[in-house]
Design goal:
heterodimer; A: 614 residues; 7-stranded mixed beta sheet; 24 helices; B: 377 residues; mainly alpha; two-stranded antiparallel sheet; 2 strands; globular; disordered C terminus
């Protein structure tokens, strides 16, 4: 049969096709009749019912916008609130000539062009009888100016509404982020019902990460309206549900101390409460004032922020990546002990440089004359580079990679914020894949002192330090401690990810070395040990921004500020029972011991010595 | 037969007749399309709140689309056949490009930005899919054998899944039905059709599992719109009120209070039928449906008069898909089908679908006006 069919039979095909055409047309007629039956049902049978719904008085559904949740710090200080604000609103339907009115308003109140454009875009999405804001957060002068001229502006009025306010401005900007007008792209992805009537949405930080909780649930009112769509009577309503209030682990006073202590330096300070993982300080300097973003920041103002050399919009604590420098040494030392690669008391001679066998290149120590014969404790105390060049060479890159990974380097910490950077923890595998090159022994050597490809964020550094203070059990940082909504109170996330099985003795040995950094006679940060009743375990670090040539000496006075080394410091306190871990990065601060350590000391002092009554 | 044709040719051709033949335009079809386009402007003017800007923009698009249709009508159908596979291949590559670029740019993307305009490959594939299937099946004897059916099914699924992944369920549905229509017209056996229908019904739970949340929401809404009046159910409730309040005679042109008061969202685009129904009532609706039916009937007639397998498969599929368009949109607006983003063909505001649809009619005209040149067996 199939063989017979391989020859086209046109007559069979023609008949078949005609049959199909007829069948298709019958189907089309049938389905169309179905549509007509439904239309008859709606337009004849249901006509009266639908007419009463539609005619003269209609039920209109108006959204009732919920109040956004308030954000507090750990001591109940308000970080983000809703304050009354005055906005200039226009109802296009009531305005005889909209463009002319806008032009007059622009002249009267000196409104920049981009705000007019923004309004025009906003307006096109709205019904002509609804009120749309032209200006948000009007100041007294603007209110006064308009009030006098009000009779000349039919359809334009000042309205009182709630607007987000951040009292701590640049101090909290990188933690909280801000809310701002919902933009076109967001409208497409947002659940339409929930955001019907909402003006703002969280764009960054906690405001963005907890958007759904903070926003609350939109209610609605069924309103009887007349033919023109104006409200006559409220029929039925479902009240909105306010957004949840958030209580952060952040201590805003401590944050201020850290921020102020950075003084003129750009940089970041992160402090973590070790037992919980709660973030006490997440400061990035410079910050920016988020309040203009809420009411709509002007183009010029925004451009200025973007173009600024100090990059105030850049969250250094979360996204800034720096070579960790010598702050990596305690972790490398711990790796040495854990892998039994080196003994704690075993001495290594430091002549001021290190050479790989058979290679002429000299890896230099920061102290040209060398440290002499040093044990691990002394190597940490004095930050001897040669000791760690040697240890790195003994360990090898892959073991260092594996060990440092256990402290969370090279991966996101999992903090409840969006946009965290992973940093870079190099390995042979990584270099093969990313750079298509083999790993060189020299790269292992410099990884031992936290240079080379290694890149960490201040948050990662603080987390690793907290983990060290937590007997080596990994700590996961978080910011939101308590979520209080109308129905429930949720308390902070689970923090501990379980033991990493690190020998506690080894951890204590490393901490002993770090205590000497601050309290030892040769410690690189002994400056900060004066007058404190407790011990701090710390480690200084300087991260090269600019690499000097083999025979050159680093003289900071000869180098422009922008190329000076970054100053770093990590610390645990009190050393015998660590409660707080701090990481400080001061960009171009040159010296970890003199520039970064005092900042950490101030934070620790305030945290330990001025306990709040919780 | 032969002599009759010959004697016809010897009659002096009228001037208009010659002109029309030169233009390769099918008069009944052209009249139908022009009527619909005219009607579209009438409704759009009302639905847009008497916005002349909207009207002018749409008129420009429709004008361009008519030009494209006329241009395509001049192309010999043999050329369509010849380039079917190539055009289909290009369409698939572009779909993949959109998908990959969309993934890079995060979120859904349906178009490629060519600088001067945005091109939606999913629109092109609406025509090239039936072209491809028609070409593939016409290369083999009909009705198609199992192997050819299988391959044809894969060829339909490929663009369908790529578009569904964008995600654009409405267009995916149209592409799938355009391909399926070719299979149907090629003589897919009735028991196989029933078997597929049963299988599809059985697959519904599986499909449900793979749907995105918002797609499930639409189905929920469709089944029970009153559950969520503020959000997803809003469209359907409001459009039913608009249509129902229109009654038998309608409220008259520009008389639709519902769309005027902005109760009805998307009144110029996907839900424009509700405005039409409110203003022109049941009579108007039946009239509009009849006009659509006349166009479809003319297209099916063209298909039936065509002897070339490829051409008639393509022509009939294009005609049927046009109906699917109408049915899915109106079904959605009157609340018998779930809301998928399909515009009312030739009437909804927007350029892309008009261009694609008229391109399809251009091909139909080409098939009809060129067929005397085809070598007949």
């Amino acid at each position: 049969m199939s063989r017979f069919h391989t020859i086209k039979d046109n007559r069979v095909e023609n008949r078949l096709f005609l049959n199909r055409i007829i069948a298709a047309f019958m189907l089309i007629l049938l389905l169309t009749s179905g549509l007509i039956v439904r239309l008859v049902y709606l337009q004849i049978v249901g006509h009266e019912h639908y007419s009463t719904l539609a005619k003269d008085n209609s039920i209109k559904i108006e959204p009732l916008v919920p109040t956004r949740g308030i954000i507090y710090d750990r001591h109940g200080k308000v970080l983000a609130e809703n304050t009354q604000s005055f906005s200039l609103e226009l109802i296009p339907e009531q305005i005889p000539d909209l463009n002319e009115t806008l032009a007059r308003l622009q002249k009267l109140l000196d409104i920049p062009d981009d705000k007019i454009e923004q309004y025009q875009r906003q307006r096109k999405r709205q019904k002509t009888f609804t009120s749309t804001a032209l200006l948000l957060g009007m100041n007294d002068e603007e209110i006064a100016k308009f009030s006098v001229m009000r009779p000349y502006f039919p359809g334009v009025d000042i309205k009182i509404g709630l607007v987000r306010n951040y009292p701590y401005k640049e101090l909290s900007s990188h933690v909280l982020g801000y809310v701002s007008r919902i933009n076109e792209a967001e409208i497409k992805t947002l659940p339409a019902a929930e955001y019907r009537g909402s003006t703002y949405i969280g764009k960054l930080g906690i405001e963005a990460a907890y958007e759904t909780l903070l926003h609350g649930k939109t209610g609605y009112a069924e309103i009887e309206t007349n033919v023109r769509g104006r409200a006559i009577n409220n029929v039925n309503s479902v009240a909105p549900e306010s957004g949840a209030n958030l209580y952060l682990t952040l201590d805003i006073d401590l944050q201020k101390t850290a921020y102020d202590a950075l003084e003129e330096f750009n940089g970041a300070v992160v402090a973590i409460e070790i037992k919980t993982g709660g973030v006490l300080v997440l400061a990035s300097r410079p910050g920016f004032d988020p309040n203009p973003f809420v009411v709509g920041i002007g183009n010029d103002e925004y451009q200025a922020l973007q173009a600024s050399d100090s990059q105030p919009l850049y969250n250094r604590a979360l996204r800034g990546l720096y070579p960790p420098g010598s702050t990596m040494k305690p972790f490398i030392a711990l790796a040495g002990l854990e892998y039994n690669a080196i003994g704690y008391e075993q001495k290594h001679f430091c002549p001021g440089y290190y050479q790989l066998p058979g290679v002429s290149h000299k890896y230099r120590d920061w102290r040209k004359s060398g440290h002499g014969s040093v044990s691990m404790n002394e190597a940490i105390t004095e930050s001897c580079d040669v000791y760690f060049y040697n240890l790195a060479s003994v360990l090898g890159i892959d073991r260092m990679h594996k060990f440092l990974q256990r402290f969370g380097f090279g991966e996101r910490t999992g903090i409840d914020l969006i946009g965290e950077k992973t940093g870079l923890l190099p390995s042979q595998e990584w270099k093969r894949q990313q750079k298509k090159q083999a790993w060189y022994p020299g790269e292992t050597i410099i990884t031992g002192i936290g240079q080379g490809y290694l890149q960490v964020s201040p948050l990662q550094l603080a987390r690793a330090t907290a983990t060290l203070g937590n007997h080596g059990d990994i700590v996961t940082p978080f910011l939101v401690d308590k979520i209080v909504s109308a129905h429930s109170t949720t308390v902070g996330p689970e923090t501990h990810q379980g033991s990493m099985h690190i020998n506690e003795d080894n951890v204590n040995k490393i901490i002993a070395g770090m205590i000497n950094v601050v309290h030892g006679e040769h410690g690189t940060a002994k400056l900060i040990s004066k007058g404190i009743p407790y011990q701090i375990a710390g480690k200084t670090g300087t991260a090269q921004v600019y690499s000097i040539k083999q025979e050159e000496t680093y003289n900071e006075n000869n180098i422009p500020f922008k190329l000076r080394d970054h100053a770093l410091f990590i610390a645990l306190a009190p050393a015998d029972d660590p409660k707080i871990a701090v990481a400080v990065v001061a960009e171009h601060g040159s010296h970890g011991g003199s520039m970064a350590a005092p900042i950490a000391a101030k934070v620790i002092k305030q945290f330990l010595e001025e306990p709040h009554a919780d | 037969m032969q002599t009759e044709t010959r004697s016809e040719q010897f009659q002096p051709p009228s001037l208009i007749g010659t002109l029309l033949r030169k233009l390769h335009i099918d008069i009944p079809l052209m009249i139908g399309l022009l009527l619909i386009a005219l009607l579209s402007f009438v409704i759009l003017y009302s639905a847009s709140g008497q916005d002349l800007d909207v009207l002018m923009r749409q008129a420009a698009r429709v004008g361009l689309a008519f030009l494209l249709m006329t241009a395509l009508a001049h192309v010999d159908p043999y050329q369509f056949k010849r380039y079917s596979a190539l055009l289909f291949g290009i369409g698939i590559v572009l779909l993949l490009a959109v998908l990959i670029l969309g993934q890079i740019g995060k979120g859904a993307q349906r178009w490629l930005d060519l600088g001067f305009f945005r091109f939606q490959p999913s629109e092109m594939i609406k025509i090239t899919t039936p072209m491809m299937i028609a070409w593939y099946l016409s290369e083999h004897p009909l009705p198609p054998r199992a192997k050819h059916l299988f391959i044809a099914t894969l060829l339909i699924l490929l663009p369908t899944l790529l578009i569904a992944k964008q995600p654009d369920l409405g267009t995916a549905l149209l592409v799938a039905s355009s391909g399926a229509a070719v299979l149907f017209f090629s003589g897919l056996s009735w028991w196989l059709i029933s078997a597929i229908a049963v299988t599809l019904a059985g697959l519904t739970p599986v499909l449900w599992h793979f749907m995105r949340d918002y797609q499930r929401d639409r189905v929920h809404t469709f089944l029970n719109p009153e559950a969520d009046p503020l959000g997803r159910g809003y469209h359907i409730i409001q459009s039913k009120i608009a249509i129902g309040s229109g009654g038998i005679h309608g409220k008259g042109w520009l008389g639709s209070s519902q769309s005027k008061l902005d109760f009805l969202p998307e009144s110029s685009t996907d839900f424009i039928f509700a405005v039409f129904a409110e203003e022109f009532g049941l009579f108007g609706c039946v009239g509009l449906l009849s006009l659509y039916l006349l166009i479809i009937a003319r297209c099916l007639y063209i298909a039936s008069q065509t002897k070339d397998t490829y051409s008639r498969l393509l022509a009939s599929s294009l005609a049927f898909t046009f109906f699917v368009y109408v049915f899915v949109n109106i079904g959605m607006v009157i609340g018998v089908l779930p809301v998928v983003g399909v515009p009312l063909p030739l009437i909804s505001y927007g350029g892309t679908s008009v261009v694609t649809l008229l391109a399809g009619f251009g091909i139909l005209m080409s098939i009809h006006t060129h067929k005397k040149y085809l070598i007949q067996p």
